[in-house]
Amino acid sequence: MHHGDVGRPDRLARYVWRRLTRIYPIYWALSGVVCLVAAFSPDRAARLAPWHVIQSLLLIPESVDPVISVAWTLQHEMLFYIAFACAILRRGNGLLLAVLCVLLVGLGVLEPTAGRWLTFIESPFHLQFLLGIAAARLLARGNVRWPRLTTVAGVAIFLTCGVMENTGWFLPYGLASHLLFGVASTIILLGVVSSERRGFLRIGPAGLLFGGASYSLYLVHPLVVGLAARGFAKLGVLVWAPESAVVLVMVAGAMTVAAGIYLRVESPVMVAIRNARAFSP
After folding, report:
1. What is the number of structural domains in the chain?
2. Nearest-5° Cα angle at 209, 205 to 210
């Protein structure tokens, strides 16, 4: 979407506006819901500490998870957006920052630090953003030669990595974990996108709906699953119901809620924001 903006400073304002309005509106709305639920929890004083809530809403890294627990990944995403904005200002900045990213991650592996900001900046998660850029550049040049085989190989590598991690071959969230899962995901992405382009894969209306709702699903699923688990526990469902059935109900519930939020809140808000931008002087 923004690869053509690199090296074009005149497009910086448009890029910043689109990224901020894509991330924050629905995130703030759902954070408000989570804060409302947290107000009735025993640890509400800690969870709703004013400075913690402010940092969570702004996606400023902390030593604890944000109000929406999974939003810690968005903190890394915001750092990537800042780096990409630097590449928009000057094309050469992109390569410089990519090299700096690798060096910092390597430094973090060799000499781990205890500082919050250094630990954040040196996170191996950032290597996966570089892999995403590599995938985008490759796909911009064309499709992979054997897309279906590539997809199957990527899935096989991903599942193998999962088994290896669960059996202790490498540590979760370590450098090997990030690189192996990142490479596997990159291969899957190359195969799936190329398969769709060549007509081997059709997403369909349901795929489009849940693809659009993926951000809402990501943000809302911890809340839905948590509330469902509490409800099932109080009703005694967890005692007699098969675990697989409980998980299936939770997944279906999270997807249904996310689709509703996307259709009734996220999508209309995004349309309104874009229309306001289009008619602004």
Report:
1. 1
2. 120
